[in-house]
Amino acid sequence: MSLTLQVLLEEGTEVLSKAGVTEASLDAKYLLFEAFETDMTHFLLDRNQRLSEEDNASRIRNYRAMIETRSQRIPLQQITGSCEFMGLEFFVNEHVLIPRQDTETLVELVLKEYKGRKPAVLDMCTGSGCIAVSLAVLGGFDRVTAVDVSKEALKAAQKNAENLLGHGSITFAESDLFASLEEQKKFDVIVSNPPYIPTKIIEGLQPEVRDFEPMLALDGKEDGLYFYRRLADESRRYIQTGGAVYFEIGYDQAEAVSGLLRAAGFAGIRIIKDAAGLDRVVCAIYQ
User: What's the confidence (pLDDT) of residue 256?
Assistant: First the structure.
């Protein structure tokens, strides 16, 4: 049988299917495109053309190596080193949570509600910087501070800021939530996608998440609410009166997080659903 892109795709799909990868065909296709530096249009045109194994040896070898890596359940985005979020291409690695489409709900909401304005924004638990950088790029926000406890995550976030914005557009700070921030600095908007998965739930997650994404970005402690308690309490010292908070939540955490914010003196609490119709963002005003 002649070696073609279609044959390689089927070969990769079979390997990933046997490894239990959920979207084996799709992932094999992404890796094929990555290895051969092609896209869907050119793949459809060329997929049945015979490949010269001599001329394409390095590409074929790279593709098969990536398939083998993916078969170990290492996330696709960590293999390619990139992930699309809000139409932007973000660098990702093993030190940051891979940006999810769910989080676009939060970013889209802030962009809509602050259109034409230049609020001072604090992105707490920034990870890859996907929220902070997206707000700066798409909203033109020029006073954004991004905070994370992980030095390695901040390196990835800074790289994304440099790639998508250039230097100096976002201020980065290494801190355990607000611990290292100056209290006299006040923000108009505080956003966060904190760790919110209860510890006991993590063991049952897909291997890609459980074994390869940073535990720091996943573990919300016993009930998943540890960071929301701190955010609700500590945000008050860093937000302007009339300022707003926007927190991503798990689908079943709206009532609990709303209660924490209400008890901390926030009002105008709203629950925003994601594209799938699940509760995804809690937002509130500090009075």
Answer: 98
DSSP readout, 86-145?
A: TTEEEE--TTSPPP-HHHHHHHHHHHHHTTT----EEEES-TTSHHHHHHHHHH----EE
pLDDT of 168 reads 64
Q: Distance between CA 283 and CA 239 in Å, rounded? A: 14
Strand partners, 90: 83
Whole-angstrom distance, CA of residue 215 vs CA of residue 30: 26
Residue ranges covered by each domain of the chain: 5-72, 94-286
Rounded Cα–Cα distance for residues 146 and 29 (Å) = 34
Per the structure block, which two tokens stand in for 55? 């001329």
Residues 66 and 35: beta-carbon distance below 8 Å: yes
Q: Note the pLDDT tens digit of each residue in 158-167.
A: 999 999 998 6
Q: In what order do the strands lie in the sheet with 170-174?
A: 170-174, 144-148, 121-124, 187-192, 239-248, 279-286, 266-273
| CA triple 38-39-40, angle to 5 deg | 140
Give exposure, 128-158, as e/b (b: 16+ Cβ within 10 Å).
bbbbbbbbbbbbebebbbbbbbbeebbbbbb
CATH architecture for residues 94-286: 3-Layer(aba) Sandwich (3.40)
User: What is the spatial distance between Cα 75 and Cα 254, in angstroms, rounded to a whole number?
Assistant: 29
- The backbone region for 144, taken as left when phi is positive above 0, alpha when psi lies in -120 to 50, beta otherwise, is beta
pTM value is: 0.93
Percentage with pLDDT > 70 across the chain: 99
CB 12 within 8 A of CB 19: no
In the numeric block, which tokens belong to residue 168?
A: 């100096």
pLDDT digits (tens, 9 = 90+) for 137-174: 999 999 999 999 999 999 999 999 999 998 667 999 99
